[in-house]
Amino acid sequence: QVQLVESGGGLVQSGGSLRLSCAASGRTFSSYAMGWFRQAPGKEREFVTSISWSSAIKRYADSVKGRFTISRDNAKNTVYLQMNSLKPEDTAVYYCAAANSGLIATIEADFGSWGQGTQVTVSS
C-alpha cells in the first residue's frame, strides 16, 4: 500500500492547460502501475489514463487521447497528468490511484490505493 496526494487542480478556461501531480509515499512506488480517474458531478468515476511501473505501457480513455499525457518519475515518487486543450466536459474531481501490481491496469477494482482527489474546473 502507498499513500497518495494529488495537487495542481484549479480553474482554467476552455482550451487551457493544467498539470496535476500525485506524490506517493512508500519504498516500493516504482513497483506499482499508476492511474488517473475522474468523477464529474452526478456521474460515476471513470478511467482517464494509466502507466506501467516502467512507463513502457500507457493507456488513455478515448475522451482524452491526444490531449492528456501521463508520466512518472520513480526517483521522485511522483506521477503527473499533463492536461492540454481542456474542455468544459473535463470538469471533475481527478483521483490518482496505485494499482495492485506493476502490470498495466484500467479497471477501478485493480487499483488498491487512492488519493483524496483534486478539483479541475474548465469554464466555457
Characterization of the model:
The radius of gyration is 13 Å and the shape is globular. With 124 residues, the protein is mainly beta. Strands 2, 4, 5, 6, 9, 10 and 11 form a 7-stranded mixed sheet that branches. A 4-stranded antiparallel sheet has the order 1-3-8-7, with no helix packed on it. The model has no long low-confidence stretch (mean pLDDT 94). It is built from no helices and 11 strands. The protein starts with a strand and ends with a strand.
Topology:
Layout: E1 3-7, E2 10-13, E3 18-25, E4 34-39, E5 46-51, E6 58-60, E7 68-73, E8 78-83, E9 92-99, E10 111-114, E11 118-123
Parallel strand pairs: 2-11
Antiparallel strand pairs: 1-3, 3-8, 4-5, 4-9, 5-6, 7-8, 9-10, 9-11
Can you count the beta strands? 11
Largest sheet: 7 strands, mixed
Series of secondary-structure elements, N-terminal to C-terminal: EEEEEEEEEEE
| Mean pLDDT reading | 94
Index terms:
124 residues; mainly beta; 7-stranded mixed sheet; 4-stranded antiparallel sheet; 0% helix
Could you provide a short overview of the structure?
The chain is mainly beta and 124 residues long. It is 0% helix and 50% strand. It contains no helices and eleven strands.
